Amino acid sequence: MKKILALLLVSVFAFFAITLVQSDQLVPKFGDADLSSRVSDKYISKSVSVDNKVVEYGETVNAETGSANLVTSIVVNYRSFDTLGEVTVLFISALGISLIVGTTDGMIKRSESGFILKTGSKVLMPILLIVGIYVITHGHLTPGGGFQGGSMIASAVLLLLISDHEFVPNMNKFKVLEGLSGSLYIIIGLVSISLTGYFLKNFMPTGQVGELMSAGIIPIIYLFIGLKVGSELTGILSDFLKKEANV
Amino acid sequence: MIQISAIVLMLLGIYGLLTTKHIIKMIIGLNIFEVGLNIFIITIGYKTGAVAPILTSQNNSSILNFVDPLPQAIVLTAIVIGFGITAVGLILAKKIYVQHNTYNIDEIGGKI
Q1: Taking the domains of chain B in order of start, what are their residue ranges?
Q2: Which residues of B touch A55 (CB under 8 A)?
Q3: Across-strand partners of A208?
């Protein structure tokens, strides 16, 4: 009975969704996106507050935002306040997890891992850490950024957790790092209020598009986001391995 | 076609969410729903023959044909929030399993 009801509900939803897609009223047909009528056109030519102009890789100097990766320029510059909210959501979920786990001492007993996992993790962990830091620092030039690199750093710690059954991470240092980088993100926003009058607006020279030292405050903010996400995900992982509190 | 398959993924997720009694399977259903939704949002910005929205030494000018970067930026936000939801759901499932020794919500019977 319940399955029939669920099937009915799903088919009603399917009818509405598919007629919406077929009608081309709200959603454009696949492959027919018209960027000239969207706000993204301004984002691509880096001219939200100035007149339309052409941005050339390796030539344009002092553009509105110097990031070569256009997605990063939206995430950390034009919609940076949105990203601050996103980081806050992640922080609240980590906080909720540590509240649900409660105050316990020690981790659960883990069984000793095999030879291949132990040896392989010794080879893989430094590579993962280096790639994670590379992805964070090149977030404004190549695909990637703070969230992706932070998850790579956390996965290096996860590799250590599953390969070494006696390893206990010192979570206090991670928590200090997380709080520090989260507050520095807000402090950058406050500095930009005092200098430019807008929260999280770029106040540094943007440099030449395509250089590592360019894009103003984007690499700095992405570095803080990467540290915060990496330490936060490590905290979540070690919370999952904590001993259960006696209820 | 890819829009229809994204919708089919979303429907599979909703169906699984509605019919199962197993908490872990519910979280899996929620994740399938989320993946379908993310693919659907990405397809809104696609343009045939366009390149990825990154300026490189090959695609070096903003007058080129780029896909819409805004849906990709929004999906980045959605992925992170989905991770938070999954993590909180899993820790609640673990808590329920430790207290009741079952993942089935029928066997818990309303007492938390």
Answers
A1: 2-46+67-108
A2: 55, 61-62
A3: A61
Please indicate whether, in this complex, the C-beta atoms of B73 and A74 are within 8 angstroms of each other: yes
- In this structure, whether the domain defined by B2-46+67-108 belongs to CATH 1.10.287.3510 is answered with yes
Which tokens in the block code for residue A136? 């964070």
Q: CA A155, A150, A195 angle in degrees (round to 5)?
A: 170
Chain B residues 35-94 with a CB less than 8 Å from chain A: 43-48, 52-57, 59-63, 66-70, 72-73, 76-77, 79-81, 83-85, 87-88, 90-92, 94
The whole model's pTM is what? 0.85
| Facing A35 at nearest CB: one of B1, B68, B92 | B68
Measured between its terminal Cα atoms, the distance across chain B in Å is 45
A173-216 confidence digits (pLDDT tens): 888 988 899 899 999 989 999 988 888 888 888 888 878 888 78
Question: In Å, how far is B32's CA from the nearest CA of chain A?
Answer: 15
pLDDT tens profile A133-172: 999 999 888 888 889 999 999 999 899 888 888 888 788 8
- Which residue, among A122, A91, A49, has the nearest Cα to A229 in the 3D structure? A91
Q: Under a CB-based contact definition with an 8 Å cutoff, are residues B6 and B32 in contact?
A: no
- Nearest CA among A200, A238, A207 for reference residue A222: A200
Nearest CA to B39 out of B66, B17, B84, B8 is that of B8
CA distance B9 to A72: 28
Tell me how far apart the alpha carbons of residues A182 and A86 are, in angstroms, rounded to a whole number: 12
The DSSP output letter for A143 is S
Closest CA to A65 of A91, A38, A36, A45: A45
Q: What is the ipTM of this complex?
A: 0.84
**B-chain residues near A69 (CB < 8 A):** 53-55
